[in-house]
Write the structure tokens for this entry.
Amino acid sequence: MSAAGIPRAASVPRGLYALTPDCGDAASLLAKVRDALAGGACLIQYRSKIGDAALRREQAGLLTTLCRDWRVPLVINDDARLAAEVGADGVHLGRDDVDVATARAILGPGALIGVSCYADLERASAAAAAGADYVAFGSVFPSTTKPLAPPSPLALLGQARCRTGLPVAAIGGITLDNAPQVIAAGADLLAVISDLFDAPDVAARAAAYARLFLEASSQ
């Protein structure tokens, strides 16, 4: 519980936050996520914009089992009820999804709940007050996944940490080359899709991201 009595998850990891790519083949998706876990991803988000309900239920269930085996949290993008159905660790909420209180009621006090704040510090403050566990900002760089997303200046990351006291995730156009400046700006989590899962060696790319956090911690 927070000081205000609002339930929160026990902890939010720091490091590479792997967001799954759209993939119609469950076996292929599992293989990619397994490689990301082997490389050191600390948090997985199941995000699918192409599958029907049956495919999403199948993939989410398989990923829940995989992530549980690796002892890495899995959150479901947008859908708190699917997260509850498959026993995932939490949900990531956008502006068109249920609010934090509703998600918490569906998933329970120990669920990990993140909120997309785009470039809006006030939305982050409201999410923190409602009991979110982390807030996310982006697009911090131009993104092929969300080309129309409004830009989110890196300065917002540190400002959000100070204002909310919550871990901050950065998303949008993050690559291994620009990741160090995002970490330096205050990101606790780097949410990555393309630069991770399009890499020829997903495990090696994940390990390279993980090393960036170790290097930042040692400085």
Remarks:
- Residues 53-70 form the longest helix (18 residues).
